[in-house]
Every structure is written in C-alpha cells, then in structure tokens.
C-alpha cells in the first residue's frame, strides 16, 4: 500500500484490483489534497497493466461527507471535483464505489460517477447541498435522474433528504449490498466485475427523460413552500438539463452552481451549519464529565414532561417528580403522548417507544431522587420555590449529583447559594417543546465546577441538542435579547404600525412567525408575569406599552384561550382581534401620540437593529462566548431565518458604521432605548466585524 504520512488517499493492488482508500478524517471531506490524490490514483491505476478493475472506499466513518465546506468562499484550488469525477466516469477500467456511513453531497456524486455502487448496512445517502444554499455541483443533478428517474431525483435533490441502504438499493442508486468491511467489500465487488459477474456502466451515457410539466410543477411547489430560498429551485432547473448530452448538462449545472456559490444565502446557511458545531467548543471541554445514568426531573408541566421525553428518547432513565399527586398521572400521560407522536411521525417504532416509556418512573416524592446522577428542576419561575427545592435537594441527593435548573430568567448564583454545593449547580435552559427544540442554554454560574459544565455538554450531545454556553444575567443570552427587541415592536405598534403589519413584515423577512403571533402562541400570560415581576425595577425613563397588559386583563392569553392579538378559529386560522385595535387607539390617545405610517423596511430595520444592539452587549459582557454563539441561540431556539445565519452574521451584512447611524437616528425620538453599544463603536473604529471576533 502506498500512503505517505497524512496523505488523504491510500492506493494498493490486490489480485488485479486497484484499491483507493479515502482517508481524510473525520468525514473524508473532498478537499484539494484528497481530490489530487484521487485523480492521481485513478490515472496511475489506469496505467498499471496489473490492474483490471478499480474500487474506491472510505476508511473511518463514511465514504465521504462531500466537498470540504471550509474551502467555500476561498479561491478555488485545482483539480476541481467535477473534473475528477468526469475523469472517473471516463476511466477505461471500471471503477466501483463502496458506500458506507453518511455519504453525502460530493461523496455521493463520487459514487454516482463510478461504474457500479455497493452499499453497506446503515449507510445514509443524500445530496444535502440545497440546505447549504447551493446545488450538487459535481454532476449530482445530471447523474441521479439518469440512474433513478426524474421524480425521485427531484424529490431527493430539492429536499436534501437522506435515504438508507435498502431504499437506495430499491431506487437503483446502489447495485448491490455487502456486510463486510468497506475495503473487503471493495475487493469482493471489483473481483466480481473482473470475473464478469457484475455489470458496470457509465451513468452519463444513460438517457434521462425530462417531463417539462413535472419540472414546472416542482418549481411552482417550491416557490409556494419556500419562496425565500433560491437553491432548491435552481437545483430543479439544473435537473431539467439532464436530457442533454452529459457534457452539456454538466456545463449548465456548473453555471447555476456558481451563481448560488456567490449568493448571501450560501454564506448564511454555512454559517448556520458552523454555528451548531462551533457553539459546543466550551472552555470546559477538557474537563472529565461525570457519568450520568439516571436523571431526575422535577415538575410535570409542559416543560418538565418535554424534558423527560427528550431524556427518554436519548435512552436515559428518568424519575419524574410531580409533588401534586393528582397531576402525576397527567404528567405520565403527557410524556406517553409525546412518545406516541414520535411513533406517528415514523421517527421510532412502537417497540422502541414501549422501551422508552418503561424507563420512566413517576413519583410525588422528592426523596425518590436520592440516587440519581443529575436533577433537572423545571417548576414555575419563582425564586422562593426554586431555592426551597434546591435546599431540599442538597439534603436528599448523593454527593456529586449535578443539580440543574431549567430557569429561563432567574439568577442561577442565587439558586446555587441555597445549597452547600454551589459547584454542582448549573442552569440547563431548555426551550419548549423540549423534546422538539434543539437549543439548550448551559448557564454557568460563578461557582459551577468545570466537570459539571462538561457533564451538561456531554448530556446535550447524547440528547442531540445544540448546547450554547451562557453566563448569568436576567434572561441569559436568548431571553435577555428578546426582552430588548420585543420592546421595539411594541414601540412601533404604539407609534402607528399595526400588529398585523409588523408580523407580516417580519414573516416576509424570513421569521416563521412575527412577534405578536409568537406571543399568542407562547401564551401572553407568561410575558405578563415577567412584566409584573420587573415593574418595581423598571427605569422611569423607559417607555412602557400597556397594550399586552390590557389584553391579559380581559383573560385573553392567546391561542390557548382562543383570543389574543388575533382571534383563532377551530381550523387554526388567525384574524386580527378588532378589540385590540381599539385598545391601541385608546393608549395612543391617552399618551397624545399621533400615529404615523411605517414601511415594512423600517419595521425590519428597527426590529433587527434592536436585536443586534442587545446581542452586541451580551457578547461584550462575556455572557456569550462569541458572536456565533448568539447566532446559534437564535437559529435553534427562536426560529431565526436560517439563510441569514443568525442576528450577528446578519449584522455584518449591514456593517457596524451603518448600524450606529441607524441607532443615532432612532435615538432622536428615544435616547434611552436607542443607545449605541460599545462593541459596535469598537468594531466601527477598528474596521473589524463580528466574523473577525469569532476567529479570535
Ligand atoms: N466539509 C468540511 N468539514 C466537515 C464536513 C464537510 N463537508 N462535514 C463535516 N465536517 C466537519 C464538521 O465541521 C465537524 O468539525 P469539528 O469537529 O471541527 O466541529 C466534523 O467534521 C464532524 O462533523 P459533525 O460534528 O457534524 O459529526 P456528525 O457525526 O454529527 O455528522 C455529518 C456528520 C452527517 C457528515 C455532518 O457533519 C454533515 O451533515 N456534514 C455536511 C454534509 C454536507 O452537507 N455535504 C455536502 C457538502 S457540499 C458539496 O458536497 C458540494 C458538491 O456538490 C460540489
């Protein structure tokens, strides 16, 4: 075998088979060195008379997870992936691919350019490029429809979904399966080809039939469903070229690929991909996590039962404490209902659901937590109640148990101080519904031990959550920033914009829901309770909008009561609540405000500028480790439009100087609310961006 040091490609010859092993950990990304190694290996094996058939396989986790994303946005390096794959397709000697693990994007395109494909059990095949704002640019849009037909190729490419080994074989992506190791399977398949026992063909020579009506309908559907995203539509446009000779189709694919490569969507979506991975780099990563077998969850409400569900789904046994005995059975039913939903959506089998439910114990007794390795308290937001519980946990729990609180605002230092072991106390802020939402804010208090932080991070990994480290402040990263920018929406409401216009403008911008519709969904009583809690400490200079209080005083808490800003019908439609418009007018009259018109652009500008301002303060104060951590919080916990990459990634598109100019303009009306954050001034002064801070 020839392979020098870190060489990402190994080549060996056995019984007339030239074996090319891809070896570029962790996921065999197709970076420049690998592409060159692969191209050289194919050329050399073609020239070697001892070789009759060539086979490509991956060492490690997969054949390849695709192009090296870290090369995007940088000057291209030769050889291009598409050229290497054309070289493989044109190879005089047959080339076989063995597909194992997550074989995605360029990794699958490599397999498609080979002359036959063998899959190993558990492989996941897909072309996820559209989720990164691009399209398969190394022949995927031309070769997949040739192999499996137009409709199936459109579905796979425009959704970015993955298919397993069996489905891939049924679709015709795979020509066979094998249970041996990737290298053994490669050798066996190539030997089979050499003996004439397995047919091979060049995918590019298969004729694809393109139905223009099917293409038109697919594009129309995408425009309806995801109008903000160009990539899936362009991908379908590329597929439409698949009935041309392969060289022409590849040329058309490349032109569309390059168009998308230059788009801001691509930058935003890859930033979002990175945010999920960068956020888990905590300073405490090197500490040794404590083992976590069983976890206690306190509180059987929506949050507690959601957290218990998420733990059970991660295979972790749970003792759920609901001290109100009459609610204990309701809590069990809520967990069972959540697990049932996963079966209905085809996520797990009924047998797996039964096994998960069997790991749940429900008790009314806090003493039942004596032996658990970790506790997650999820009772309502009341400091006295929480400190009372933590005082008791201190008496009950075994030494070394991690004591987590799911508070969303309260001071974790004060909660820790209720115990004799503040080093074991940590904030674990889940987002509702906790078994669905991916974000977990890990709130590190002053005395939290590094191994307790590492334990939380390891648990987040098992639960497939996106963990973001936060310092202690009112609302941590997400709710603190939300509390600030939410006021900007209320100020616009009072000054003349309607709540429907604000919601629609922000939905058009890319948010799944505008802030008033979100308030109705979450329950207006939640914000009301917080406002009452903070009323005594609200600065006199701060503008206050009382519309939401007036709505709550009528007993209207949003969707759960059928009324809030909107009226909700049985069919989940929403209509503006006319009585709210009357309340707004009354408050305007009371405060002597003459309403003025707002353009949609101004609404977005004010809302986003307010969000960015508070986010900059959160970074400056060290509450968030890096700007990208704020982006992760908003992408995975607050429905921020993914293609914009998060509030601080978006901020770089506007630029610090322009943001300061906006704030100074708005400050003419309200100099207390609109203050320029120090970090924005520093960035404008030094010419740096939030992206630069991520690299420091
Ligand atoms: N390029 C560069 N680095 C990659 C990568 C890629 N394509 N895929 C994964 N990585 C890196 C991750 O950033 C991570 O780095 P870190 O350890 O420094 O944080 C490391 O590999 C491990 O990845 P994960 O933590 O994500 O590991 P998982 O096991 O959770 O997931 C995966 C593995 C399913 C492969 C997931 O990483 C993934 O979805 N990767 C992206 C796949 C993809 O989108 N491929 C298409 C690329 S575009 C393309 O091929 C264009 C072509 O058409 C021309």
Automatic annotation (TrEMBL):
Domain (3-hydroxyacyl-CoA dehydrogenase NAD binding): residue spans on this chain: 294-469
Residue ranges of domain 3-hydroxyacyl-CoA dehydrogenase C-terminal in the record: 475-568, 603-688
InterPro entries in UniProt: 3-OHacyl-CoA_DH_NAD-bd, 3HC_DH_C, 6-PGluconate_DH-like_C_sf, ClpP/crotonase-like_dom_sf, Enoyl-CoA_hyd/isom_CS, Enoyl-CoA_hydra/iso, NAD(P)-bd_dom_sf
Taxonomic lineage from the root: Bacteria, Pseudomonadati, Pseudomonadota, Alphaproteobacteria, Rhodobacterales
Catalytic activity annotation: a (3S)-3-hydroxyacyl-CoA + NAD(+) = a 3-oxoacyl-CoA + NADH + H(+)
Gene3D superfamilies for the chain: 1.10.1040.50, 2-enoyl-CoA Hydratase, Chain A, domain 1, NAD(P)-binding Rossmann-like Domain
Family statement: Belongs to the enoyl-CoA hydratase/isomerase family. In the N-terminal section; belongs to the enoyl-CoA hydratase/isomerase family.
Gene Ontology annotations of biological process type: fatty acid metabolic process; lipid catabolic process
Single GO MF descriptor: (3S)-3-hydroxyacyl-CoA dehydrogenase (NAD+) activity
Top-rank taxon, per record: Bacteria
Pathway given in the UniProt record: Lipid metabolism; fatty acid beta-oxidation
Protein known as: Enoyl-CoA hydratase
Oxidoreductase recorded as keyword: yes
One Pfam family named in its UniProt record: 3HCDH_N
Alphabetically ordered keywords of this record: Fatty acid metabolism, Isomerase, Lipid degradation, Lipid metabolism, Lyase, Multifunctional enzyme, NAD, Oxidoreductase, Peroxisome
Subcellular location: Peroxisome
